Batch of 4 targets.
Target 1
Amino acid sequence: MPAFARDPGTAAYYEQRAAEYDEWYASLGRFAARPRPGWAAEVDELCRFVHALPPARTLDVACGSGFLTQHLRGYVVAVDQSPAMVALAQRRLPDGVALRGDALDLPFADDSFDRVFTGHFYGHLPPAERAAFLAEARRVARELVVVDTALRPGGTPEQQQERILNDGSRHHVFKRFLTADQLAAEIGGQPVLTGDWFVAAAASR
């Protein structure tokens, strides 16, 4: 099983993708013609879900461009391995801070935060990295909220995907699709969002 969080090729892909990352959410560019019924409404629902989380000292792990991060309330620290993603996220966090960081070796003391939040990161992790991430999340915060991509009817739960960027470059990433119940079981919590496109689960220690 390939690595994801520490794979140099994956790191290069997300650094290169940063400027166009939000096109996935906004159905622009290569995503404009992709048939995704109900997508826009569910993106709005997801943003409302994130905003409705109680204000807390929150660490957003693998924050990407900060598209979801910006909806978190309370004091927010965001980490990502990509400098370009960190720069984009920082612009969306006028009262928080975005930093480069290793999701599997978080540079924070035990119980530094009330909550760890992560969106569309967990589903990329192979088993060993999932275990490492969950251990780190539980170490630095008492609550964990994970958002990821829903397994759709007839969909393949696990695959190696080819990703094509606007410049035509081709990249490969490992990706899992999850039901809300499966995600909850894996993180030891409860489902908190069940949609056609997105799922979320929350766990506390």
Note: The chain has a mean pLDDT of 95.
Target 2
Amino acid sequence: MKQSKVLQINNQYIQTELQKRRRNADENRQKTRFMGIILVLAIFLFVLPTYNLVESYDTLKEREEQLVQLEDRYKELSRQEKIESSLVTKLKDEEYAAKYIRAKLQYSKEGEFIYNIPGLLPK
């Protein structure tokens, strides 16, 4: 086996320098660990509000879609209400009411024949 020709000096100065290096390495490790923990906490603190913001945005979009659907439904119901109210005012006229009943319910006077023609029924 070859013997190394490098001679290591082991005196007090070398020992103190090695201890300083170990302390510095330990301090650096602790600083790095502390900065890693701080970084993880910072990321966590930014992720939670972002998640809540995204959920709020999704809820807002769903509510906007629901509002559009409800507005469409309101327009449809308003249109139907106008049609029904116009029918009510027309039915107050006895002559129209008689025509309507005869056409819709197929009532007839004695000796009368009824022929239904689609599209000619009163509205």
Note: The chain is about 75% helix and 0% strand.
Target 3
Amino acid sequence: MKVLIIEDDPSVRALVQAVLKRNEYDVDTAHTVTNGEELASSDNYEMIILDLGLPDGDGLDLCQTIRDKGITTPILILTAEQETDMKVKCLQLGADDYLTKPFDTEELVARIEAISRRSSSGEGDKVLRCGDLEIRMLERTFKVNGKEVDLTNNEYNLLVYLLKNKDEIVTQEEIAKNVWDIHFDTQTNYINVYISYLRKKIRDYSEYEYIDTVRKKGFILRCPD
């Protein structure tokens, strides 16, 4: 796996680089927003590890810039922020996971591997269908009524989970654990935000309301009869 580390602290950057190389990852590094954006845009990385506090800008802004460019490479945020709101904001801007500093190096590797598993899906050429919806997991493509629809990594992983559990109620806690492999305060609107993103993209091409909210329980993706 080829990984890009964007971190301005030399000691942290050296630690992460050493840990990843020890686990046989191919690693490039950057220490500024400018250099990080250039590398993220020019090479085919399978993972980006991104610090929030960079000398020439905000890592959150860089995360959003990367996503705005259509780059879907999974992003793991490193942050000293402990507040749930900041963690949720990272995910809302397109990050796939976050890890707070100081961090355990074994957890770092475990999170990278978990993100990689979710991104690759491990489902071969499996196709998931429900009414007008179709996901081809080998190509990681999503179509509604035959029209291809772009999804972010987080939207894709959420929709795959809902399709695998179609016609069944799934709770916010189950989504948090099985889609993002994290635990956070589900009273935040984070999951609701991503549900709304999926609803809007589906509505652009279909009149059927696939995703319903089940009050005090969770969500259900209903297939047409």
Note: The domain at 2-120 is CATH 3.40.50.2300 (Rossmann fold).
Target 4
Amino acid sequence: MTGAGGEGTCPVTGQGGGSGPIVGIVGATGAVGTTMLRLLRDRRFPAAEVVPLASARSAGKVLDGGLKVEELADRNIGGIDIAIFSAGGSISREWAPKFVEKGAIVIDNSSAFRADPEVPLVVSEVNGDLVAQTPKGIIANPNCTTMAFMPPMKALHDVYGLRSLVASSYQAVGGAGQKGMDELAEQIPTLLGQREKLVDAGAEAYASVTASVHAKPIAFNVVPWLGSEKEGGYTDEELKMLSESRKILDLPELTVAPTCVRVPVMVGHAIAIRATFAREVDVDEAKAALAAMPGVALDDVPTPLEWAGRDEVVVGRIRKDLADPCSLNLFVVGDNLLKGAALNTIQIAELLVEKGLVRT
């Protein structure tokens, strides 16, 4: 393992000395991977060395901060204490067990292990204690949409006893990675040059652009379909909201009615939620519980644009349901690249160090 220029260690925090864990980032050149590297540096994670790993075509590339990318290969994975994956499910399924065999604890940001009953699915503020229970040496990071509303739901569940959710997401194109953002950016000028058709000949405007990343053209549009079709006409993205909410909150009987929608926003997922509880809710009491929850902020009218780049998930539009005194309506926004992905993985790594589960 080498740092910048291929010589010696390259502590990401500048705190070196070889006393902390060695951290590997698999998929280090992607949007989430580069954010992970930045967070390790900005949060002064006590790593003795950080090793960026990626495909052979990226090997040798020098990243911001001077770290040099190494090829994801058997010869380069020994000695790593914490391996953080953000390279897709197939890479995780192939390589995570190899890192574990070499002595690493794996934090995986894909969907590969989320449903595995022997792999904890962790949101740091909600069930962070589970990092000590890793029979397979792997900790899973939840889907970015589910992640956003887990801290506020945990805060409310502890007060009222959560029973059911109706959750409709408004998901940014950044959830599909850089290629998702690029497709939106490419479609905007074409359609903006046809403003009149956007008003009175929408089908013609629609036909003038093509979609390869999203299910349908996304610029100036809303697409109520993400993922692949599963049972009952639901998508896998929607069913993740059900299964992952149950697992994270440890509520196997929780009912969830999910709808996932792609919107023309670069970064930041939003979720409109109707949450039903075991007892009557009080808005002021609910707001106090949310404000006291780590990682949660309050804003009367939160929007993805103004909260992009911020660590917290934000909750607003908090209203008692018009028909059911035991239900609360609210709107949650979270940066899908930060708390929805990179930030939570780094927080899990911090918990591993804090609890003495890796060398320090």
Note: The chain has two domains: 4-141+342-354, 145-178+213-336.
